[in-house]
Amino acid sequence: MTPSPRPGGTGHAERPAPRELRLVVADDERMVRSALRAILGAEEDMTVVGEAATGAEAVSVVRALRPDVVLMDVRMPDVDGIRATEQLLGSMGEEAPRIVVVTTFENDSYVYDALRAGAHGFLLKRAAAEDLVQAVRLVARSEALLFPAAVRRLAARYAPGLRHGPETLRARLTGREADVLRLVAEGLTNAEIAARLSVGPATVKSHVAAMLAKLGARDRTQAVVAAYEQGFVTPGTR
User: Fold this and answer.
1) CB-based contacts of 206, cutoff 8 Å, min separation 6
2) Cβ 10 vs Cβ 141: under 8 Å
3) What are 73's strand-pairing partners?
4) How open is the CA angle 76-22-151, to the nearest 5 degrees?
5) pLDDT given for residue 237 in this prediction
6) Ordered DSSP codes for the chain
7) CA-based nearest residue to 181, from 226, 117, 114, 235
């Protein structure tokens, strides 16, 4: 059963969701593109402005149309979704869209590699329409981590050996920032973190921003991946 994404707080790369979200769908299967366009295009606050059948085409279309969110098939001919994600995030900087990789299998090394490359989350192609729509809105708002339990399972299976070790990462964060990172890895929103730590949401937002900046992470997903890879949090913890 596909988990439902959670509503939540904000992060370092926070940008308010625009009145109408502009989307690009990239998948080498025409039927998948058509299905995604039908589901997302039916929403009043979403418009699919472009499609792509290959990774190279996706890069070109996204650069030309500047969408808010890209649904990127992780496996495509020519240039796969991982390389396309790297190219877009590397070349567009702050203007880069939010990228959600779409995959058939949850426990796929390609998915983990896409998250390491900077994708903001992932969705299964069999996801229910309402979960798909909610996930797109959540990613556009830069809120809570999508499917934290699934990210934890991916890290348990595919995370490489420790590159620096937990002490190195811990030394870069204050004690409160470290607490926030652990709670972000659990998938908590800013409001939930504030309640857990007995502080205000604005304080949590400040800690999240500082934590992301110190880790050099674009968003919560990249920060959590780094935390798993460096052993700061482990896939066995919750």
Assistant:
1) none
2) yes
3) 102
4) 55
5) 55
6) -PPPPPP----TT--PPPSSEEEEEE-S-HHHHHHHHHHHHTSTTEEEEEEESSHHHHHHHHHHH--SEEEEESS-SSS-HHHHHHHHHHHHGGGPPEEEEEES-SS-HHHHHHHHHT--EEEETT--HHHHHHHHHHHHTT-SPSSHHHHHHHHHHH--S-SS-HHHHHHHS-HHHHHHHHHHHTT--HHHHHHHHTS-HHHHHHHHHHHHHHHT-SSHHHHHHHHHHTTSS-TT--
7) 226
Token readout for 168 is 């190195």
Query: From CA 106, how far away is CA 231, in angstroms rounded?
Result: 22
Tens digit of each residue's pLDDT (9 = 90 or more) over 200-227: 999 999 999 999 999 988 889 989 998 8
Tokens of 217: 């992470």
pLDDT in tens, 128-182: 999 999 989 888 877 667 788 888 888 888 876 655 566 677 788 999 999 999 9
- 25: number of Cβ within 10 Å: 27
CB 23 within 8 A of CB 40: yes
Is residue 49 a contact partner of residue 60, using CB atoms and an 8 Å limit? no
Per-residue pLDDT tens digits for 51-106: 999 999 999 999 999 999 999 999 888 889 999 999 999 999 888 999 999 988 77
Cα radius of gyration rounded to whole Å, the chain: 17
Tokens coding 198: 């007995």
Q: HSE on the CB side for 159, CA within 13 Å?
A: 23
Structure tokens at 9: 């707080």
